[in-house]
Every structure is written in C-alpha cells, then in structure tokens.
Amino acid sequence: MAWNDTSTDLDGLSEQGFEVECGGRRVPGVYWAPAETNPNQLCLLGHLASGHKQAEYVTQLAHGLGEMGIASMAIDAPGHGERAVAAHPKGGYSSDLNALGRRFDEGGGTDGMVAEWKAALDFIESEFGNRATGYWGLQLGTMIGLPLAALDQRISVAVFGLMGNMGPNADDMMKHARSVQCPVRFIVQWDDKKVTRDVALELFDALATGRKTLHANPGSHSAVPTFEVISSVEYVARLLNADRPE
Amino acid sequence: MAWNDTSTDLDGLSEQGFEVECGGRRVPGVYWAPAETNPNQLCLLGHLASGHKQAEYVTQLAHGLGEMGIASMAIDAPGHGERAVAAHPKGGYSSDLNALGRRFDEGGGTDGMVAEWKAALDFIESEFGNRATGYWGLQLGTMIGLPLAALDQRISVAVFGLMGNMGPNADDMMKHARSVQCPVRFIVQWDDKKVTRDVALELFDALATGRKTLHANPGSHSAVPTFEVISSVEYVARLLNADRPE
Fold first, then answer.
1. Among A62, B68, B150, B162, which is disulfide-ready with B176 (CB 3.0 to 4.6 Å)?
2. What's the ipTM?
C-alpha cells in the first residue's frame, strides 16, 4: 500500500494516486482533498460501468465535495480503468452483463470488491484518521457500494441508484440490502430501459433502513438531471456534517 | 371581495383574512406576508381533507415561506373550515370519499373549486400586483391544486402528493394532469394505505411536464418526514426566485 510519486493540484483540489493490495490483486485508487487541509469528512465515489476512478463525472463530484470541505476517494473496479483487460479496453462499456459478471469474478465477486474498498478505506484512514464517511455511486457504483454499506459500518450515508434487482450480483445486492442501516438516497430514472422501474423499486424496497428516499425523474438511464446530482452531493455533505462529532 | 377588519401580526408575519365571491359562494381566505413588505413571490397553500385554511401546518408553511421573503395565501375548500356544514363539523375529517365528493359538488366540483382559487388569486393580485406564483398542496390540496395548475398558467411551480388516480375527482385529475406544464415535485408515502403506490404513480406518470420529480419515503399516509416538507418549501422558493424578473 503506497502513494504514487505524483500529487496534482487541480484548481485548489489536491489529487494523489495510491495503490492497495487485496487478495493478490493490485487495486489502484485516487484521493482528493482541498489543498493543504485534512477534512473531517470523506466520501467514497463509485464509478459507472462505462467509467473508471478518474472519469470526468467522478472528478467533478470530487471537486464539488472539495468545495464543501469534504475529501473523496475512488478506486478502479475490476476490469475498469488501470485494471482493464485486453478484451475490455480502458473505460470501454460493455452492455453485456455476462461480460461484466466475468470481470466481477476476476475481482473476487461481490465479496472481493467489497474487500477492495475496505482495503482502500483502511489505507486512507491509516494516513488521515477515522472520520465521517459516505458513499456515492450509481449503477456499477451501487452494485459494489450497496454490499459495502451493508458490510462496513463506517459508511454512515449513501447515494445509490440506476440499479435494481438485476445483473450479475443481483442476489448479493438483494441480500445485503436487507442489512443496510445507514440513510440512503436512491436515484431512479423513470424511463430507464436498462434498469426498469420494477427492478429498481424492488431494490429500494429491500433496503432495511427506515431513512431512505427515492428520487425519480423522467428520462433514460443516462439522463439523470444535473440538479439531482448536485442535490445528492449536498445530501451527503449535510448528513456527514450532522454526523460530525462536536 | 374584501379584506376582513383585522390584521394579525404573528411574530413578524402579517396575517389578514379576506373573502371572495365565486359562483354565488362566499369563499373565505387568508393572506400572509412578512410584515410591512410586498414580496415578489407568492405561494398558494392547499390544506388537507382534515384541515382548513389556518390549520397548524398551513400556518407553519406560511411562516417558513415568510422567512424566505415569500407571501402566501390559503382558502377554505368546500365543506371545510368556515365553510363546514352541519354534517361535517369544522376541520372534521371524513374518510368517506363519497362524503368528500358531496362537498366537492356543493363547491361546484373540480371546475368550481378551480374557479374559487382563481377568484382568490385575482383578488390578491388586484391588491399586490402580479408576481411569480407557486402552489403547495398535498392530498385534498392536490385534488384541487393539480387542476388549478393545469388551468391557470400563473402557477409556475407546484408541490403535489399524497394523492393518486382515485377519489371523487380522479377522472378530472388524470385529465388535467396531462396539461400540467410547470415543474412539479410529487411526494409519495411508500407505505400509504389510503393512497396506494399504484394510483399515486399513475397520477405522477400522467403529469405532462418534463420537469417533475417523485420523492418517496417509507411510512404511512400521515408520516411525511419533516425534512421532506422543508425541502419542498425550499424547492418552491428556489423556483419562484429563478422565475423572478431581474
């Protein structure tokens, strides 16, 4: 587990790469914080199946959080970003869920992917200490983040969505949803043909927490309104701050 | 159409009663504004079937809006508040939808109730001028307010909810929903036994506007979370301000 050599200053946000080892797999990650600060809150950012840890929207979220004084981090999911394999070029999206399933398996399945996030969070906490921690991730970010939130009590608030009772780890998601206790905002695209209403509502319903709110907007899978994204980041920030010890 | 004699100062909020005549019916209303100001925004407040124009939650909403510099107004629905008839004592709630339907009919049905709100808004505009206008009303407030928003283009943003394709004016609501063009936030209680998910989603789906967001929280009909109410008032305020001419 180590930092990369380089740290980049992105307009007041410091970005630094790192790598952790988990179950024999090398997992590359990136950590963002407002320059020269040590925030009291941290948000984990899960990328989409079409993305990677430094996809544009991930970096934008990191900037938005940074402006609110919140640190963030991301790792590449199995088969994505620096972990892309020949058959799945970097950042390439496959709508073939079986292919996604094979990449999951290469990453140790649901348990393996949860272990990777835990290892990354362990590393960041070893460097900066424990602090109020949230998770933000839609679609693939929910497929991995929802089991993580169920299994790692450090996650005190989560934004999920664009996912449902479907895909290669549907059974794992549904099982773990019944253990999620933290507050959740769940984003649904009402005309989503990839993740239909029915399966999305099944997953929302399965979440054990009593503090969950579904936000549904018209439009397709990829048309989440900007105001909804901004509102979701403000939600995470508000709850992480509420969680902050005096 | 006239003001009542008395104006009350409620902790910085001025409250004044008025009465308009509509189709031979006397319709009592109330107007709130931050004391000694003439706000640029106005929100119409529709009460619940269990309430009236000065029910506690209506007054609380008026205060919340007033603190944001927004005026508000409410009228008694047919059979409610000062318009209660012997069989339906003031503020008394009847879960008998047929009884509610009879009270609707006494008020001229959907068209008559829309005309009453239009007359009240006409009066307030004759006194204070035209300004950005929103509507906030759940349950009965949606049964009346949704047709109003469809038929009166002065309504530029609305909060609806706790209602669906059901009740004495279900057909009218579904018909008028297909003409609603303003942005709408639609609040659903996910375990509502009075207004089930299915009928609520049918009404949400029927809304013509592309700017509509459904917010669903766990719990019964009467358990709308406080944070959701506050957020809905902030939503109205934000959109009324966005609508304000420079």
1. B150
2. 0.87
